Amino acid sequence: AIADGIGALGAWATAGLGDGPLKGLLLEGLFGGLGTVLGFLPQILVLFLFILVLEESGYLPRAAFLLDHAMVAVGLTG
């Protein structure tokens, strides 16, 4: 759905612009990059939701304590 919306926006911009460097910049640069970022946005939001749940539940400090010994064993202290 997001990619279709960006594609429709690109088609609208193609019809309104003539050939030239501005057309290439807008279509390939701006709309292409924006479409990629918006395509990954749902996955990023779900990831942040799960991290928020782990933080609010208090599990992250416990997980850090449980993994501390294993990390020291491979030289990752801190």
Automatic annotation (TrEMBL):
<dbReference type="GO" id="GO:0015093">
    <property type="term" value="F:ferrous iron transmembrane transporter activity"/>
</dbReference>
<keyword id="KW-0812">Transmembrane</keyword>
<keyword id="KW-0472">Membrane</keyword>
<keyword id="KW-1133">Transmembrane helix</keyword>
<protein>
    <submittedName>
        <fullName>Ferrous iron transporter B</fullName>
    </submittedName>
</protein>
<feature type="transmembrane region" description="Helical">
    <location>
        <begin position="30"/>
        <end position="54"/>
    </location>
</feature>
<dbReference type="GO" id="GO:0005886">
    <property type="term" value="C:plasma membrane"/>
</dbReference>
<dbReference type="InterPro" id="IPR050860">
    <property type="entry name" value="FeoB_GTPase"/>
</dbReference>
